[in-house]
Amino acid sequence: MPVTQILAYSERDRREIAGILAGLGCESSPAATLNNATDVIEKVRPRVVFIAEDSAAPPCPVMIKELMQFAPLVPLIVFLRERDSARAVEYMRSGAFDCIAPPWTADAVRPVLRKALNISGTGLSLARPRSQLRKKLPFIAVLTALLLSGAFYLGRFHARRKMAVVPALPGPYSWNLPYSHPSGLAWDGKSLRVSDWYSQSVYEHDPVAGMRLLSVAHLPSAVPSGLTFGEGVFWMAVSGHIEKRMRDAKLTLLGRTRFQGERLSGLCHDGLYLWTVDAKQGRLRRHLTDSELTVTRTWQSPAANPAALACGPAFLWLADASSRELLTLPLDDPETVLSRKSLPQYRDAGLKITGLASDGKRFWSSAEGKNKGMLFLHDFSKNRPVHTGGD
Amino acid sequence: MTSPRTGQFIPAEIEFPDGSAGWGRLIELHPGGALLLTRPPVPDGGEIFLSFELEGSRIEKLRSRLAKRRHDPDGYLLCEIFFIEESPRSEMRSIILDMLARDRGTMNDGIKF
User: Closest to A144 (Cβ–Cβ): which among B3, B25, B93?
Assistant: First the structure.
């Protein structure tokens, strides 16, 4: 009898799905939360995991990603609340095997379960199966040969096009800020936001127009010490807490959660999770963006003195104030350092890095020291030396 | 020679002529058509609109004709489809050629020029 696991935050869903699976001849092990599910998955060793979409649960892509960490080869099937093909495809792109639309019935589940169970082993037969494709094989072989024979010339053409000279980034690469105590930096897709702890404000700058100041949001009840942007909102470090703020003129407060560590020195959002680095404990933490900012995993920080953090969909970038380097770390194993790049701007001991942001290609850092605040643009992709200029 | 493969079977949204929607995966893909794995029901009518991503490029509502379909042993439907519109076919041809050209070191095994 195949063993399956059910992850459903609602008891009613757990009972309903367990009933369907029992009718299909499966044993099921229910889990009420994501943490339960990841705790038991290695003991239960299910052949298939079923996830019920639920507004009370973390987003499905997060649950899928978490479960895949523990059981990467186990098919994950999502029970949808509504028949929504765009959501189904989004979950499949995140790693779900397939999705089941309502009504949740044995007939709807049966083919998915069979296919999921069937992919777990090599098929055996006495005769070579004839597939639909085999009838078209001569046509496809000719087409493939034609495509590949053209590939060499087209490949050469495309490679040459990509090697064409890329226009140089316009200088300057550093700016003196009109405020002296930048504490955090965030790229919101269009502009750079810099928090300043002394003026208790967040400044918006246009990186295309010479860092022209676009707006200022004053926060009379907050002393911001870190900033990042993700899921359409700002995440701000304030006095041992992390605040979630709207992207409006006032940066309206949406929620506030106590930070679980001791000294939050950097935070960033990778598109799914919020990451924090604790300079006192030397820990990198990955959080769900729920109201408790639940920690899903913790790693040792490979930076001796982690001062700022930025991330993208595949990497974390961690600034080490001791070695004055920018470390590139993979998201799934951030204790491994993939590369180190020097930050010569910070050789001056009086200048300390306080924020880091990236748009995927360029990096900016904010610096505080000597009664001035500065912003730097780093262009590592072209190994371009960074020139310091005026503002 | 083994044909080049993407990292996963590409998920695709399907829009049927009666306005209903579904999803499936592309088992095979070439500029002229694809082999689509989906689940019933697939309404009759012959034409469907397919949307999927290929190498970061979004192919939106590609008008396609359902040529053949058969049930597989698990109860899924394997559908052979042909793309009707020319300009998305050209775009896909270009993307597939780029992918083949990038991977040509491994993909050229067995091919003699």
Answer: B3
**pLDDT for A173 beyond 80:** yes
**What pLDDT does A153 receive?**
58
In 3-state terms, what secondary structure has residue A63? helix
Residue of A nearest to B108 (CA): A148
CB within 8 Å of A289: residues ≥ 6 apart? A230, A231, A244, A269, A273, A274
Nearest CA in chain A to B13: A85
Residue B39, phi then psi, degrees to nearest 5: -115, 150
Sheet holding A253-258, edge to edge: A224-230, A233-238, A241-245, A253-258
The CA distance from A124 to A120, in Å, is: 13
Q: At what angle do helices A137-162 and B86-102 cross, to 10 degrees?
A: 70
Pairing relationship of beta strands A76-79 and A98-100 according to DSSP bridges: parallel
Q: Which residues of A40-57 are buried (b: 16+ CB within 10 A; e: fewer)?
A: bbeebebbbbbbbbbeeb
ipTM of the complex: 0.77
- Which residues on adjacent β-strands are paired with residue B21? B15
Q: What is the CA radius of gyration of chain A?
A: 25
